Each structure stands twice: as structure tokens, then as C-alpha cells.
Amino acid sequence: MTEFTRSSLSTIFANNSIQAIDPLDMRNFIDSTLIIADATGSTDEIAVYDGSEWKMSTGSNVFALPGHTHVLDDLSNVTVPSPTTDNVLQWSGSAWVNSALAAIPHDLTDHDNVNTGSLADGDVLMYNGTSWLNSVGASVFATSGHTHALNDLSDVIINAPGIDDVLQYVSPSWVNSSLAFAATNHTHALNDLSDVIINAPGTDDVLQYVSPSWVNSSLAFAATNHTHALNDLSDVIINAPGTDDVLQYVSPSWVNSSLASIPLEATKSEQETGTATDVYASPAKQHYHTSSLKLWVRCSVSGSTPTIKGSFNVTSITDNGGGNFTVVIDTDMSNSDYAVWAASGLSGGRNYSDLASDSSAGVSSFLIICSNASGTLVDPDIFTGVVSGDLS
Description:
mainly beta; 4-stranded mixed sheet; 29 strands
């Protein structure tokens, strides 16, 4: 080996064995000792500083030149003893050391900022600002452990809330306002509704449902451009309708039926004739039939004063004195050819009643006389009378 110093640099750079060294690159170690091989040194040798001197070197100590390789274990802070499949490098505190993947701990407690302490069912991890600590679950959620207010929400703004305030959306946030303000300081139009379409509305327009929306149209258009049938009505039932069918109310619905199957009310004339079989006698007209009574009355007499106790088609009864009474008819008879039946009673004695005379029976009244067994007219305690015939 040959040793060179500052005084012999010119000789160094004249030596063919190191002519690959650029003299400018030597300026930072000009005072160092450079030891090189003989002029017949190996190919790709370079000068390497070992901490005290520069030496020509080749092999595994040569870096950044082609024609050589490096492995992890060449690194000064890596130790790789007997590596196996799926090993990983794990920092030991001073060096990177290979270890089996399964040997690497995977537990919350392996982390420096996690302290689980004594665990219990339902515990959760909660961050206290520096570490994750286990806490009882019930104490974490919306109880004494912490509180939330509407104003904590990012899209809510609460300004001096008052009683009955409501949250009103004022884009992009929900803002509190008084109920009265919220109700009066906004407007809605029909067209704001999702199922309503308003196209150039005109006077007297109506909303008409055109699936799936309500659309405005003129009243005339709405009335003529749709149809309804009786059967569309909720209280109408139409079953196989036929010619001349009518609607008949059969609670709780109107039901169609043949006109012929529905009897009509008998007229006054049909009641008086009494021969029709396809009509019915209504309560208002049944008494017009020849078989029906046209009048009846029950009257008590006390102190010559008659008092009607019950009656039909009688207006009043007048005491003409001594067992003579005029019965006034409400609805007149059509003529005086009607029949009168009378009966009377007297406590403690006999009393008889009759039609006073043929001429005493008129279309609007008739006379009843009452007498004792001797034929003397006397007032009874009670008398009754009925009439059959033809009403006017």
C-alpha cells in the first residue's frame, strides 16, 4: 500500500490507478490520508472514508454503483435473524427486527393512548382530549355525562328563544321564531303543493283531478269534460237496470227497481171507488174508502156542558138544552145521505140516544137527542157517535 498526503497530491492524480477520481471531489478531505492500492488495482474500486482515512474498496462495502446488490440485513438499524414466510419488520425501540405476523399484538391496550382499565359489559371508549378511556355506556349517552342543545347542531341558530317559539327553515339553517311570526310571515299558493298544477288560472276556474295531479280548468270545461253515473254515488246501488226502472230508498241506500213492482198511492177517487188493486192506501187517504168511518166522537156531559174526550173529524159539540146536542163536522160530508150511530149512558138510570130527524143531518153537522125510559129528553153522563158515508 502507498500513503499519500497533501504534499503529494499531484502524484496521486498522476497515478493511473485512481485517474477516475475527480480532483474537485477531493477538496473536502484534502487533509485526510488516502490509501490506495497499487497501480494495478481492481476494476470499480473507489475511495471509501472509514472515519479516519480514505481507502480503496470494492465488494459489499461499495454503494450506488452497478454490478452489486444489497439486502435488508446490510442496513445498520435492521436485524434479520432467520426470516420466515409472512415475517414483518417491527421496531423494537433501537432496531427493526423481523417477527412473525401472528406475534404482533392487536389489542386496544397495545396502544399508548388507550386505557381500558376494568372493563364491564356495555362500556364504551370515550376520548378525553389526550387518551381513549373506557366509560360506562349509560353515562355516555344523553344523561348526566353530557348534554346537547338545539344550538349545538350545525344547521340550527337559536336567538333569544321565547315561549311558544318554533323552528322555521330559513335556508340554509333552522332559526327560532315566534309562532305568530312563523304563521304570518310566509305565504303558500296552490301551485306550491306537489300534487297541484296551476296553468294560467282564469275567473271561476276549478281544480279538477287529472291523475296524478289536481289541475285548474274552467268551470264549463270541468262540467262537460267528465261523466258521472248513478252507481258512482256512495248511497246508490244499481243492479241490472231495466227500462222504466226507478230508484227506491231501501235503507241505507237507493236501489233501482221496476216501476211496475212499486205500488202507487191510491187517490181519493180510488179510495172512494174501492176497486183498484195496484195501489196502496196511505194513512192520509185511507178514510176516503167507503168502509172507513168518516167521523167518531166520545163526549162527556156535566152541568149541561159537553166536553169532547176524543174524536176524529169533529170540530165541536153544542148543548142545545135538555139532551139535545149539535155535532159540528170538520171536513164536510159530500151529501146528507150518511149513516149515524149514537149511544149514551146515564149513571143510575136508562138513557137512549138517536139522530134527531132526517132533516137534522146536514153536510156540516147533525143533531143527537138523548132521552130516558119515559122518552123525556135528559142529558146523559156520556154519549158517543160515529158516521159512515162519503166525504166531500
